[in-house]
Every structure is written in structure tokens, then in C-alpha cells.
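Hello Y.,

Per our agreement to keep a running log of every chain we model this quarter, I'm adding this entry. I've kept the format consistent with earlier entries: sequence first, then predicted structure.
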Amino acid sequence: MIKVTVKRQSKKVYEIVIKGHAGYDEIGKDIVCAAVSSMAITTINGIIALDDSIDYEENSGLLKIRVKKDTEINDKLLDNLVRMFKELSEQYPKNIEIRNED
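Predicted structure for the entry above:
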């Protein structure tokens, strides 16, 4: 299962931690893992291209996104990422779980 932890302060996302593998299918054929990876990397690349206000760390089975400067762009794009993860978790509740920490 993929576990996504969304950390907020004053209702704004300051960190997203994505851990694990979905287990929907074998590695390389897992549509849930592919969706999560695509959404996260697209969001990271968009924020970096527009205002470079985040840092990220990527290892096997782990992706951390940290806000280094609060901007309207990263607020909107990270909120959108969380919404997309939530929609995916509703379709695949056995494969992705979202946790919110304030």
C-alpha cells in the first residue's frame, strides 16, 4: 500500500511524504503506482519550473516534497496534488491511503 502523509501548518501544505508500493499489480505494471508517480513528478516539475519554491528527496519507495518558500503557486499545485491523491484513494482504497497531519 502507498501511504501519503500530508503535513499542514495554518491550512497550508508544507510537506508531503509518499511511501511504499501500491501492490495493485507487479512492479512495472502497477497502474496505481504509475498514477501516483506521474502526479507527484508532474507537480514537482511544475513548481520548480515556475518558482522553485520546494525541495524534494526521492529514494526507492519514498518521495518527500518540502516547501522551502510559501507561494501561491506551490499552495495551489500541492493542494491539487492532494485532491488527486484523494480521488485515486477513493477508487483504489486497498492500494493508497492519505493521512493528514496538522
